[in-house]
Amino acid sequence: MGAMNGIGGVREAGGTGRGRTGAKAVAVAGGKHAGGRRPGETRTREAILDAARACFAERGFDATSLRRIAEAAGVDQSLVHHFYGTKESLFLQALEVPLKMPEVIAAAAEGGREEVGERMVRAHLTLWDDLSTRPALMTMVRSASVHRVAAARLRETATTILADALSKVVTGDDAVLRSNLVATQLVGLAMMRYIAVLEPLASADTDTVVRYYGPALQAIVEG
Amino acid sequence: MGAMNGIGGVREAGGTGRGRTGAKAVAVAGGKHAGGRRPGETRTREAILDAARACFAERGFDATSLRRIAEAAGVDQSLVHHFYGTKESLFLQALEVPLKMPEVIAAAAEGGREEVGERMVRAHLTLWDDLSTRPALMTMVRSASVHRVAAARLRETATTILADALSKVVTGDDAVLRSNLVATQLVGLAMMRYIAVLEPLASADTDTVVRYYGPALQAIVEG
DNA sequence: TGATGAACTAATCGCCCGATGAGTTATATA
DNA sequence: TATATAACTCATCGGGCGATTAGTTCATCA
């Protein structure tokens, strides 16, 4: 059962030493490694997760194949399985929202009711324009329509993070419903500006969007 | 729209002789017709489109297979191809927005600036709660994150239908941008209420939503 | 230094997908 | 009635998918 080594011959072609310095014999430049552990320190695991986030963000869950992720990470597909198990569980990890998010939102909610709408819009845009948070957010919103876990995460984010942050500022009748509506406005903004890419909204600068959209959130905060 | 799919009872119960090697050919109960045109008038084409709309609305473009649509319509998969060609072109037809929509939106925009926000929200909810318009809208929004044509349709709807309707009422600086923001709010509402199913928003009654959300649209209309 | 295990690739499996083509039966036309 | 055409199924194909297995190379540590 062993000895499939006939195939292996391909790899080596010269036969002789394949030593550590092997760079010469191994791997075409930029191409794939020919098998076995790579020398030096390894950051591959993170590279795969980054690639996954980027792919999921760009095309959503269904349209993203593990092969594509693997290719983007410069790695064989089965290594993705090796590190993350199923596609589903990789997706879960890719959805993990950076800790930064609750903080930024909560900070924006601080400072009283006055102009909190503007602050929330600005904070939201900041998160979406930040390259370290954007892929996860994009993945969440883009896949929420199609994948139950992403939808659940979106709900959870809307309630846990947003509603909690707003709880001191949105008070009175139907406070929870009104928090929902604030979340609704922010998700709508992400949808149209970053996913549907509706113009001129998508190209408008932050200040302009804040100026017009802030008061709309404010209207709901104040009930 | 009701009794599509007369397939079941009638035909196979009758057991139409089906010459030839008949034998077990008489299919299982509730099973499919064994080939050849069905007797009587045919509504199959529409049944397939309805099934497609329902499936696309429920799971989006990628996750919906033609086999599933065919099954929902009580028909062989290749008949779907026969009538609609590729999956893509079937999807296009399923996206076709009922003529009713522009009318309803335009009607809501009539009547001056005062309380136009409330009227727009109400019109929007009416469309989403109407079973004849809902599947197409759901398909559009649900697939917009993942399918370029759906995204284009969403943009087009946001501009052509909404911006046009609002053009007399949203005036002044950045009128187009502000129309975008009104569309943004409505799409956000659809996302959270009908797709992410965020509670208590999803279960709130129309009047309540109109009462709280209307003023938020109004804030943007008035700039 | 030798053994254990982690990182990595190659090959392949079974499944479901969209699409096609051939064959069967009803309706429409003349 | 003869012929054409539309409606309908069945069988099948090539391909991409997620997943698994076997085997190779490197790192670590007793």
Task: Describe the structure in your own words.
2 copies of one chain form a homodimer. Chain A is mainly α and 223 residues long. The first copy, chain A, folds into 2 domains: 44-94, Arc Repressor Mutant, subunit A; 100-221, Tetracycline Repressor, domain 2 (Orthogonal Bundle), CATH 1.10.357. In chain A, 63% of the residues lie in helices and 0% in strands. Chain A has 11 helices and no strands. The longest helix of chain A is centred in the last third of the chain and has 21 residues, at 175-195. The N and C termini of chain A lie far apart (73 Å). Residues 1-31 of chain A have low confidence and may be disordered. The interface between A and B is large, with 50 and 50 residues. The structure holds a DNA duplex (30 and 30 nucleotides).
